[in-house]
Amino acid sequence: MMSFSDQLHACHERLVSVCAALPAPYPAFTLFFSVSDGSQRAHVVHARAPEFETAWREGAGIIARWVRENGIVSPWLRIDWVEGASPIEWAQFKAQLAAVKRNYFRLGLAFDKNFETAFTEQELNANAMLYADSSIAHAVVNMRNFESYAQARFARTLLLDLPADRPVYLLATVGVFCQSDCVVHKLVGTGLDAGRRQAPALTPNSALDLVRSGASYLARQVQADGRFAYGYFPCFDRRIPTSDPTRHPSVLHAMIEAWELTREDKLRAAIDRALNHLSNGLIRGYRLADGSEAAFLVEAGDEIKLSGNAACVLALAKYCEATDTRHWLPLLEKLALGIVSMQDADTGRFNHVLHAADLTVKQASRAIYYDGEAALGLMRLYGLTRDARWLAAVEKAFEHFIASQHWQAHDHRLSCCVNELTRWNPQEKYFRFGLQNVAGYLDFVLDRKTTFPTLLELMLSAQQMLQQLEGMPAMRHLLEELDTEKFHRALEYRAHYLLNGFFWPEMAMYFRRPSTVAGSFFTRHHAFRVRVDDVAQYVSGLAAYHRYLLERRALPAAGSARDDGAAWSANEMARVTGGEWVVRPEEGWRATGVTQRSFLRKGRVVFEHQVRPSKTPLAAVALKGVLQPAAAVLCTDPAPHLDKRVPVLQVPDVQQAVLALGAHARTGFGGRVCGVLGSGTGSSTVAAMLANALAVWGEVGRPEGNVSLPSGIAWNLTCMPRHAAYWVLEMGSPHMLASAQLVRPMLAVVTGLSAAAQKTRGPSEAAARLDSRVFQGMAPGDGAVLNRDIPEFATFAEAAMAQQLQIVTYGEHKDADVRLLAFDHGEVQALVLGEPLQLRLNAPGRHMGSSAVAVLAALQAMRLKLAAAVEPFAHFEPSGGRGALHTIHIGGGSFKLIDETYDANPSSMRAALELLSQAPCEPSRRVAILGDMQELGPAAQRHHLDLEPELLASQPDRVLLCGPLMRGLHARIRTKVRSHWFVDVSDLSTALGSLLQPGDWVLAKSSAGVGLSRLARVLKALP
Length: 1023
Fold this sequence. Notes:
Keywords: ATP-binding, Ligase, Nucleotide-binding. By secondary structure, the chain is of the alpha/beta class.
């Protein structure tokens, strides 16, 4: 076993290269050290110093001494450091908490600029310091809890009766976590994922591990008499004293689902104890009016609920299926008869609650969820017994569900039920109900802040129904009623969002008794409540997702070339990579390229990054509603893939193999390759506009994945069509020379410095010299199109001339070869080598005019007739998040949304603000929604503050700022303009409705990682 000093050393090695100094007036380095043995709340100390090593020695020394003195064995160690800070007045801080959902405050807090008294986000939430009670939905300063924890943490009193204008400081932190195995996990900083480890995409194995963990927790809650210990409020280790008999069978059902996957003895023993209590203690027998025998689950208050019987049927049917027994069929029939007795024979409607004494109706309707669970229970029993009575009851119920538009409830049980109903009775009306149940709910699934595991079950059951429709030509037209790409994106997002409801040890360690809740699942807005029925929902959802992943993997894996793709033979791929087919493809096998996991398409070979564990082989993924298998796996270790019915190509080095394939694809391409260099939306728009214009002269290939590294460029090259006339790629790699030699562009368009070059701390000329290495991959006589307006023009021009390239310039400069004279509401007036040219763009903003003349210059450099491209310009529309203009209907009117959410950096942010300043409206109608610009390095905060002049010059009436880095800008401008600041996109979205009005022109601009694009999608989807 590793020692604690080994854990500290491992964390130090991880931190020393990434911790950056915080600018004055704050301490340059602030480190929080937290340790727990799992039995008690983490002990936290923090250290501050001008140098990292000084802060490290101080904090590590204190925490190591505490571990020794307290005899801590196998400690959990977490270290956080402050990477950003923003002042805020005490009164304003408390006021802003009203806009934050309780327990969703995701920043640390310091009470002085020296951070002498400071708390991390985990300390604040785990000690309920910003939580009042369950009746208040938003965050609130809890004076008692604050003072209590501060006394324990600092051994002194913290007085919170502060003056209203007293500044406190919001802290953005990032951390690492390490246990006795010395594996260091990097933790997510701010945002909805904050506080937990950065986990790779879920695989069948990792999903199963989560199921096993949750089921193990549930098994521990089954007491000797078969009853469940209902749950805990972990902040102070308070047990939930109440219980709900209806929850008992639903939790039991989830445990059986898990046991079916794990076959663990302790889980089975707990299931049998709980089942015994259900059958002997909770279910009662009755004789109905027609003399038949029925059974009901009886709850406290002598109530019989429709959902209670349904949950019993689901649990017992699953037990019969999983254990291959028919022992429970007589009781199942009685429970099902009880459900049917609650159904109106004429309308199909169910009564929801009965009096247990005489079976009279107590409440006709309570929740649509009851209807969905009852119908699903009967369908599961029909699948087990094929008794036509149960199918007939469900069909009768759906007459009522359809007539009453129950799909509007988006109930997950109804989704599960209709999926199973269509397998036995595939009528169009049932399929349409299932589609309606999910189609209008995708934005909710994508944007809901709470984890809600039932949403995953909703999506997975709908996915199974979509798969049915794919194989039914007569019904396939129904798929037009659903955005299948968005559907699958929402499904994957919701599955991975469940990771935020798992009690990772790095989160559990801050609560009163970590071992009680670690490895379970929680409901954050309910005081991090851990309750068996909540955990059961996570287990069921993840078990279903595990099965979904296995089904994708089990599909036939032989690939064939797509009509629009490259065609790689098995021999060619092995020869280029120097690899060996360990599992050979079938005769005539073809692949359309190689790809990363997240961009897998039918016919492509998937490769695994070598820095990741090779335990999770891939065979297939879902894309746009169709299950599409991989053609093969490219790997260094074939062992994990040998039994997956997929060809396996073993290579000495995966990255080198991908680079070799990319270089081979480029060598074999006979068309013209164009590279566009710059950053943000400028280069993206030019690349898209150029590809659109070149389509006049032939097919154009464009990459679809991240090309910021040579390996990303390489795999994209392998997938691009060999028969195309042109390839257009954006280039901005930090390894520019290697990328240039791989791509070897015949034309390079330089719109400005690349994002990679802008991260350098040197002068812009030095950055330009780094970017100008793109020309070293070009041959004399190739074309260079240079932006005449950028300060670094001379540096680029000198490098292009040294390589003997043909230079064409563009811009507003008087000496530009292609000069932008005017841009007025889409009308572009330009001079091309002294000749006037006019064209129209279907896109707003002067920067679009600049992009247009860049494309004209590129066409001129390739000696193509410009007149032929005028029409494509008129039809060009910016792609998502790159400046598209949308009309959003709201409150009886509409407003304009300029969607610039694809990415952001200082130059593209200023261009977007200039676009807002040109909006054809009164300044009182301008709204700027700006999110953080990410990945700007140590100078990130300064870049955000430097936006102030351009922001104010755009004359916005309202400014909505989002993210920790925008907090400082808000502090600067709040006295000059109506400014609001939000911690993250979710908090912004909750307040958005009251801040936008008909007639507004709204600019939305941020880095992609901020998530502002989700907000834009929600707005665009408004009816």
